[in-house]
């Protein structure tokens, strides 16, 4: 049965199901973010190896996103989403039997394939259920599922890592992915539309050009994410600063608060009212982490980062999707999340090198510089093209 979209309604059964499924897969993913670096350290890995293993999965994810973008329009939403979830679950479950860093590196690459397929699919599926004139609001609501997972996941992962060994931890994470798969089977997916004039050169089509501008901006912001997920637990431990679990909680709460109003603000006013204030907050958060005089500064940085990133991400995603033709939403999402992947992966690897040469503290100074660059690029785009460019 073809999907019928209510012109105004956002909260339908299918929208709720994709949000809940997204919560469980993101909960598992967020549990791995602070624990993978600890696992690599236990296996004897260096800071550079931690950065490599943390970031490498984003590059395999990046490689498969263009395929996912095309396949979502040709093969359908369900097959791509379910395949991605299954690969993710199997790869994370395999961490329970990882014998060496080399094996872990391989399985991280496999995990990236599953992550690239599943997250590109969800970004497209949720737009199928969201009316155009409320897309910023809808993307913000959908983002709540990932944000709630972020509020719980890192703390839960660190707690379990402190009480269990890594084998049961990764099996628990894999079981969360299985729940996501069961929920995903209940969704009424949009049927793909035939494209009679489809070009034979489609295999060379690896990005959606209308989504490039917001995606480039996102890249420089998500570089900071690589520094936080890979090294913040190790940095705070080195500095003797307590409260890393509360940092992630403050970040997630601030993210929820920010997305509550920023999605609607984007729909009403456009990205100019959302992006620059959010970027300023992210810069302040990075500088606070660079300074880091105590636990209070860590929590303030978490709140600032959540408010800033919660403003930027849904606005840029809505911009990328709205700028693309309807039949190119899959590729727009692939382009957008590809930039996210590239930023996180490049950040993790770059900051692994910086950590080994200068120490963990300087990671966050360079992260602040990265966001300052994206602010300058954004202002340049405004001057050249205006807000609609």
Short description:
The chain is an all-alpha fold.
Which key features would you list for this structure?
389 residues; mainly alpha; 13 helices; 78% helix; globular; disordered N terminus
Question: What is the molecular shape?
Answer: globular
**Main pleated-sheet profile:** none
Estimated helix fraction: over 70%
Overall average pLDDT? 88
Q: How many E strands?
A: 0
Order of helices and strands: HHHHHHHHHHHHH
Low-confidence stretches: 1-6
Radius of gyration: 20 Å
Tally of alpha and pi helices? 13
Description:
This protein has 13 helices and no strands. The chain has helices spanning 13-32, 35-42, 47-74, 77-94, 101-128, 135-163, 166-184, 212-239, 244-269, 275-291, 295-322, 329-358, 361-385. It is globular.
Detail the topology: elements first, then pairings.
Elements: H1 13-32, H2 35-42, H3 47-74, H4 77-94, H5 101-128, H6 135-163, H7 166-184, H8 212-239, H9 244-269, H10 275-291, H11 295-322, H12 329-358, H13 361-385
Helix pairs in contact: 1-6, 1-7, 2-3, 3-4, 3-5, 3-8, 3-12, 4-5, 4-7, 5-12, 6-9, 6-11, 8-11, 8-12, 8-13, 9-11, 10-11, 10-13, 11-12, 12-13
């Amino acid at each position: 049965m073809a999907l019928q979209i209510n012109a105004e309604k956002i909260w339908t059964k299918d929208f709720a199901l994709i949000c809940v499924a997204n919560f469980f897969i993101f909960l598992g993913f967020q549990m791995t973010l602070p624990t993978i670096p600890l696992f690599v350290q236990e296996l004897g890995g260096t800071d550079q190896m931690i950065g490599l293993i943390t970031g490498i999965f984003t590059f395999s994810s990046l490689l498969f996103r263009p395929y996912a973008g095309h396949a979502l329009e040709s093969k359908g939403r369900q097959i791509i989403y379910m395949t991605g979830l299954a690969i993710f679950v199997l790869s994370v479950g395999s961490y329970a039997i990882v014998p060496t860093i080399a094996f872990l590196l391989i399985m991280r690459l496999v995990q990236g394939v599953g992550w690239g397929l599943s997250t590109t699919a969800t970004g497209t599926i949720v737009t199928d259920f969201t009316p155009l004139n409320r897309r910023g609001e809808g993307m913000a609501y959908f983002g709540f599922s990932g944000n709630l997972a972020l509020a719980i996941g890192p703390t839960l992962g660190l707690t379990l890592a402190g009480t269990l060994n890594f084998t049961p931890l990764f099996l628990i994470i894999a079981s969360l992915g299985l729940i996501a798969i069961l929920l995903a089977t209940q969704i009424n997916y949009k049927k793909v539309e035939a494209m009679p004039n489809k070009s034979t050169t489609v295999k060379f089509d690896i990005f959606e050009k209308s989504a490039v501008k917001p995606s480039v901006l996102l890249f420089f912001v998500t570089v900071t994410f690589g520094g936080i997920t890979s090294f913040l637990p190790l940095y705070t431990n080195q500095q003797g600063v307590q409260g890393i679990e509360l940092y992630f909680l403050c970040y997630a709460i601030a993210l929820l608060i920010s997305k509550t109003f920023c999605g609607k603000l984007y729909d009403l006013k456009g990205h100019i009212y959302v992006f620059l204030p959010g970027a300023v907050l992210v810069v302040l958060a990075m500088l606070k982490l660079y300074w880091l005089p105590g636990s209070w500064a860590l929590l303030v940085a978490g709140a600032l980062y959540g408010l800033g990133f919660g403003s930027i991400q849904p606005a840029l995603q809505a911009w990328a999707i709205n700028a693309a033709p309807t039949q190119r939403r899959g590729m727009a999402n692939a382009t957008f999340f590809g930039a996210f992947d590239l930023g996180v992966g490049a950040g993790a690897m770059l900051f692994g090198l910086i950590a080994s040469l200068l120490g963990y503290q300087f990671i966050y100074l360079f992260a602040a510089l990265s966001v300052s660059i994206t602010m300058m690029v954004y202002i340049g785009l405004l001057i050249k093209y205006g807000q609609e460019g």
